[in-house]
Amino acid sequence: MISYLGRRAAYMAATLVAISLVVFVIINLPPGDFVTALTAKYNVMGQGLTEADIAGLRVRYGLDGNVFEQYWHWVTQIVQGDLGTSFEYERPVADVIGPRLGATIGVSFVTLLVTWGLAFPIGVYSAVRQRSIGDYAVTTVGFLGLATPNFLIALVFIYFSVTWFGSVPSGLCSPEWCDSAWNLGKLLDLLGHLWIPMIVIGTGGVAGLVRIIRNNLLDELHRPYVTAARARGVPEKQLLRRYPLRVALNPFVSTIGWVLPMLLVGDIVVGQILGLPTLGPILLGALRSQDMYLAGSIIMILSAVTVIGTLISDLLLGWLDPRIRMGIHQN
Amino acid sequence: MTEPLLEISGLRTGFDTYDGRVRAVDGVDLTVHAGKTLCVVGESGCGKSVTARSILRLVEAPGSIDAGTITWHGGDAPFDVLSLDVKDERLARLRGGDIGMIFQEPMASLLPLRTIGAQLIETIRIHTGLDKRAARAKAVDLLGQVGIPKPHERIDAYPFQLSGGMCQRVMIAIALCADPSLLIADEPTTALDVTTQARILDLIRTLQAEHRMAVMFITHDLGVVAELADEVAVMYLGRVVERAGVDELFADPKHPYTKALLASVPVLGRDRGRDLPTIPGAVPNPLHRPSGCSFHPRCAEAIAGTCDVVAPPEVDFDAGTGFADRRTVECVLYADREGAPA
Predict the structure, then answer these.
(1) Min CA distance, B159 vs chain A (Å)?
(2) ipTM of this predicted complex?
(3) CATH number corresponding to B4-229
(4) Of B2, B94, B6, B11, which Cα lies nearest the Cα of B48?
(5) Between chain B's N and C termini, which has fewer beta carbons within 10 Å?
(6) CB proximity A229 to B under 8 Å
(7) Which CATH number does the domain A107-288 belong to among 3.40.190.290, 3.40.640.10, 1.10.3720.10, 3.90.1150.10?
């Protein structure tokens, strides 16, 4: 297990380095650099900067050396927690992202729990009772849920709440609660708002996961080891839980890798439509206004989280499956 | 004659396919006697395995058992396995308790994610009610009995760390955990190499003697039959076409199919430089069962106008001095024999 962990950690470090290179390239893609943009802005405001000022700024922001030095400067800053300055917000990137991170993780985490909580038992039921009326119902609803884009569901929600309640469900808090400190009222207000993004983002997720679990389990339910376990008298419920379900769990656990970044960004389009204070809309805005440090930082964070998520799912897989733990490759 | 332990009568098991219902087992009568070995032989697809699986009610959808009775005489009072509710505790006790079963693919029959010990101990605890520690001790003991070296270490091995032969030994240990009176072995050596095969057969024979259990051995290998069997049932296309004591079967095969099977076994020395006889054609698709006797298209002795029209009668012969209490052949060639129904 230790060598497995070491191997995984080494892969993870290598991946992060590769990603940081790509992100650095993305940040440097637009012509000019941060100081050029700053100079242009001061020019517009009528405050010309001298060559000395510009050179000073370049040193300050670590833009004076060659490309490799710049990259090194940028990476060491990130490691120290300095993500650079958002040009659009004129604030450190960390200050822009920070407050939204909580809301994003909150919304997504609750959504994820509900999604898993619903998808798992439904998927198992649907597989065990294959071709039953319940299975057909679940499958049909699941297809509808998969085929309907989340933003469409969001729009439908907005339409009904406007026609029925005369208000648009926006954000995660009512105006009167948004700036107050945490108390019961604010919590209730949050719960009142939370269910909409939860349902909107959750439907697609549940439908997708139900299909994954159902298909995994169907693959396993008729394996020889199931027949053999039944033949030696293992009671059906115990049999399901200890044999095919354990194998079917593997692909499910693998999904954690991409679920974690989804937790952070949330659904970009849904976030935009419902006015959620998540990272998704910020990323969209940063890309549109070429706010490269902000965009780069968000991409970097997402990538890092993806890699961490993959590591977590790898560790879980290693814990669940001795073949993976022992590095044995066989079908 | 020993007591019957398991009596299968008129068993019919079928599978729904898009082309119609396949009658994989089409009216099978078999008797396993306490402490004896019944070998069921036949080509692939003749219904041997489905018969074996029907006994423990292991046939899965789209298959189901359509008719027949399977009477278990091993308990206090005989009962029909097929009439039991799936939740009946008598069925739970049969599975792995009174009847142990081993399968063709020992590796695939064990869950790779759990150690062999976990799967063995689980079964021991289900059937004996021992606590964890006692069950583990019994597990080590059983693994030793089936010839696994260093059982106290191997008990924590995963199936993929063991060879196929070792996995089959583990399966045998699991099957033996509650001292069954019947071991059903469904081609347990087919997936193993020849040396391992011989060792597993030896093991089964030894354990059978020690535990005084009956064995129902499914195989397509006549060499195995000659080594193990007391009684033999030859199956073809879902029916038992001939049954006999093992000596009688090899000395005096009656059914043309049995004769052809025996003729196609190579004999060291005799067959040098000469083509081995084969049975022409293949087992027909049970969906399109030939009319009359289902073997007639491949039969060297088929009588035109009879075999392709009339279903052959089951002819009873004198059981002789062998172990088998019945000697029967399902063929028109013997229809005029004494005691034969027309």
Answers:
(1) 10
(2) 0.89
(3) 3.40.50.300
(4) B11
(5) C
(6) yes
(7) 1.10.3720.10
